[in-house]
Task: inverse folding
């Protein structure tokens, strides 16, 4: 089985990333699914989504949980029955989770693709990045910003938030591998720490 990376963010928070290299039959071994999860799995038409769903259950197992310990609210946000905080992500051949004893958390993994240049105006002001002449660097930067906003959106956990207007990411340098972000909504502002890492043309961003 392919546990790709484990990161200790702080004493109460950790990130686990899985690289999907197994068949569906291999991923079904060693885990149990609730009736609801079995139904969800069977309804997935994409083999990649099925593998992502199953590999998440292996990540849960790595931190001492099972599929039966996780519930989803009306907005689709996952919660652990013991009250700890969790967030989940899946992109192509990678899945990830972030778990915290005491902090709201969000995580996102994205494949670095040119496609992001076409949709960038929907989630950020491109004026901020006019100084980046290199297309590859711009794709990397925008992917991190998107992942950061997605992570904060997952922390908020409800609809109505607009990436462009309600979620703001402080500019950053690649080498720092961290920044801060704010959710500005409904008359309040909340600030979060954001960290990121890149591997095999993928970007993982997490917020807490």
Result:
């Amino acid at each position: 089985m392919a546990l790709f990376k484990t990161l200790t963010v702080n004493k109460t928070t950790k990130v686990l990333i899985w690289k999907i290299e197994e068949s569906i039959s291999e991923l079904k071994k060693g885990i149990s699914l609730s009736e609801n999860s079995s139904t969800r799995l069977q309804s997935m038409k994409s083999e990649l989504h099925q593998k992502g769903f199953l590999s998440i259950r292996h990540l849960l197992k790595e931190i001492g949980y099972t599929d039966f310990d996780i519930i989803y609210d009306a907005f689709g946000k996952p919660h652990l029955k013991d009250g700890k905080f969790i967030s989940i992500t899946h992109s192509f051949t990678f899945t990830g989770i972030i778990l915290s004893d005491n902090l709201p958390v969000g995580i996102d993994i994205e494949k670095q693709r040119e496609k992001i240049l076409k949709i960038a105006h929907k989630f950020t002001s491109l004026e901020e990045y006019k100084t980046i002449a290199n297309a590859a660097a711009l794709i990397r930067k925008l992917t991190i910003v998107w992942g950061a906003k997605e992570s904060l959106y997952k922390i908020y956990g409800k609809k109505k938030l607009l990436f462009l207007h309600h979620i703001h990411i402080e500019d950053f340098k690649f080498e720092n591998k961290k920044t801060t972000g704010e959710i500005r909504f409904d008359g309040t502002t909340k600030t979060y720490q954001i960290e990121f890492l890149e591997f095999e043309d993928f970007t993982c961003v997490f917020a807490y």
In short: The chain has a mean pLDDT of 95. The domain at 3-101 is CATH 3.90.470.20 (Ribosomal Protein L22; Chain A).
